[in-house]
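Q: Structure for this?
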Amino acid sequence: MDARVSKSPARRRPSGPRDPERTRAVILKAAIAEFTSKGLSGARIDHIAKRANANKRMIYYYFGNKEGLYIAVLEETYTAIRTAEIGLNLTGRDPADAMRELVEFTWRYFIDHPEFLSLLATENFNRARYLKNSRRIRELHSPLIGMITQLLERGARAGVFRAGIDPVQLYVTIASLGFFYLSNRHTLSTIFGRDLSAREALAERGQHIVEVVFDYLAPRAKTAAKSSLAALPGRS
Amino acid sequence: MDARVSKSPARRRPSGPRDPERTRAVILKAAIAEFTSKGLSGARIDHIAKRANANKRMIYYYFGNKEGLYIAVLEETYTAIRTAEIGLNLTGRDPADAMRELVEFTWRYFIDHPEFLSLLATENFNRARYLKNSRRIRELHSPLIGMITQLLERGARAGVFRAGIDPVQLYVTIASLGFFYLSNRHTLSTIFGRDLSAREALAERGQHIVEVVFDYLAPRAKTAAKSSLAALPGRS
Amino acid sequence: MDARVSKSPARRRPSGPRDPERTRAVILKAAIAEFTSKGLSGARIDHIAKRANANKRMIYYYFGNKEGLYIAVLEETYTAIRTAEIGLNLTGRDPADAMRELVEFTWRYFIDHPEFLSLLATENFNRARYLKNSRRIRELHSPLIGMITQLLERGARAGVFRAGIDPVQLYVTIASLGFFYLSNRHTLSTIFGRDLSAREALAERGQHIVEVVFDYLAPRAKTAAKSSLAALPGRS
Amino acid sequence: MDARVSKSPARRRPSGPRDPERTRAVILKAAIAEFTSKGLSGARIDHIAKRANANKRMIYYYFGNKEGLYIAVLEETYTAIRTAEIGLNLTGRDPADAMRELVEFTWRYFIDHPEFLSLLATENFNRARYLKNSRRIRELHSPLIGMITQLLERGARAGVFRAGIDPVQLYVTIASLGFFYLSNRHTLSTIFGRDLSAREALAERGQHIVEVVFDYLAPRAKTAAKSSLAALPGRS
DNA sequence: CATGAATGAGATTTCATTCAT
DNA sequence: TATGAATGAAATCTCATTCAT
């Protein structure tokens, strides 16, 4: 009835590590690299196995299927950034200093973790399908919004920031300024004929971002602000 | 009574349209939709054919292969935005007004053309492989950098903009503020528990972007600027 | 992004038949044979393709997937028996003759169509999952129950059959007597050490079935019946 | 208060039961359930291990391989029915009573032991391959044929049964009438729109079977039989 | 005895592309 | 131009079985 019944496979073996934790971790790492560079549909299970130097079968053993592996990658990546964010201790510090650190942290994190940018893009391609379904990720609230809210309040009281700033808009803006530059640098470099990945270019962009954010946060000087506001076209 | 009424010449098209131009266009449109929603590796030739109500073979006839079709989509999309950019006539206008129009145009264009955002993301996923190889696209220079350069100069002379602003950084920033918000709204909405696609949310973001850009462009008021600069942490 | 993009497969070809009707039919025939001899889980798509001398891909082209192919096989097989049943024209004939023809038809059909027996077994293994979901099959009502009902009535009026016989029980019994013998002849032959597939054995079983059915249908003779009933142990 | 109460020696069994007999038995039981519901090719070693709450490796330790496990299941199941058959003590009793008991026993056994029906079907699917090779099973002769032969003789002498009945045909018929109904009840229920598994339906079928068997066994009444035989179409 | 990680073979399914008409 | 059937390659996934501990 079944051809599989009387076969006897499995002969030689290159001696597996027998270190489950490690095997799982190695696969996950390989998967991060693959999904990062190819996206969800472009990633190949075979490549991941090869990269991990693991038997393809182990991927299914540990993660169920491609989707499961992708979700694990997503969770791992989100956990990493959330952990790093928690490491930022901004609560007691001077608001302007703290804000600057936050902006620079974000920029540096994006530079150092292209996998995060890439997975973010991939996930948005899928309209956040997996993110929405991962309770683990949804529960991993980013502490940043809370930190920002508190920083804005302290800064406003100290007179170094304007009042009334929406922390979510601010956070999105801080992320935007780095994300777009980095994730689109290939097309941008081509079009502008200028290597946006060069060390100095990155440093310059970092400064630019800080400036943009602080100009936005700065309280508008009484007279100067007026004229500047006058120059601003009317808002509809 | 009137012969014209029943004569209305709705010639039926039983199967093949036999209208080459139309067939090509329909396929291209379907391909834009497919590549936009699925990316390059996620797109399926079969789906495109179905969407276009065309025979799969025609795709090969007109575009060679999947890659050729993707390139055609890329060219079409880039041509469209470049054409729209040219339509913006900012040269003679008040610098602040013109700048505002530019910022708002960019934001609106991104909202109205999700396919552009999506293809940009896809193309960057591929490290701009196809863009780099398409002479047609590389020759489609964006007029914006030129416009911005000129606007900044005129604005600086008129005292409404600061001097010394890098037009490329500014352009990237203008694009960033809209692009990131829109292309990542699925994950952002999930994480913030706030519908970033809602009409009012979009309007709010538009205002925020204008504000950020103008705060950055505004000349720093003499005294106020000083204190504000003092508040700015030292640049490393 | 996608390895599939720039490959160019398809080189030689053994010249496909380009006769879709035939291709489909050949695949279906091969599938009937495979599912019959191996069951649903034991059947191999590869074997079916090879048997049909078709490209494996065509199975998916025509039937979607293995399950779809199995359902098509089920429908084909049921359609065949229902068609044969309709061919039986028993309505006008002498009830006993007609009944005998029905019994013999069933027996002969089972002998000639092992695929039907086999698929019946397979389908019951799956608790009729596919049958239940196939509207086409559920709508293929067997005409037999109607025929039997009418035959029983006519026979009862003519005094050749007992009254009050349940046509469904009778039908199930007629089928049982052949089905079990045929579908279990391998184990039975082994256990009894007697070849139940031999031509004479089959003929003998056919006579036995007719006898059993007619003894059951026969009106119980007045006196004889009494004593016979007396011999029958009390019904609980 | 009573030391015995809290001393109840529920020794925990953290992982391995270390009770070889029990482990083997538990695996066998799980295997019966799995093979019964999925057949040979549909059964999964993994599922069996899970069902048994045992380690997969133990299956190989105790049974060699899937085939060996299947054979053990087959032997277990056949041993069970043979044992039950031996329990039937019909030798000294009134032939009609004894026959009735035999028929009812068969019917009840089939109802109570779906695994037997299922394995019979599975084994026949395999053309009795494993049964043929199992000396143990082949040696497990069913006592029924002997019992039936003897019963028929005694009954014939007593005038309650016809003479000349083939015990094998009779046995097959008794089994048929129950087997087909039960093993095919899923498709039959669907097609007849009538729940054949309902308690009353089962009771009714049981009576029907008894009736069919006894009508067949009953000696044909002199005159009545004649007319009935006359009504019977000529045997070819 | 017992465990769970690991493996190779092979199964199903998908896909871009080409052929015959 | 247009069609739909056909194809080979490769992708994902499954499974019985064995190894190391």
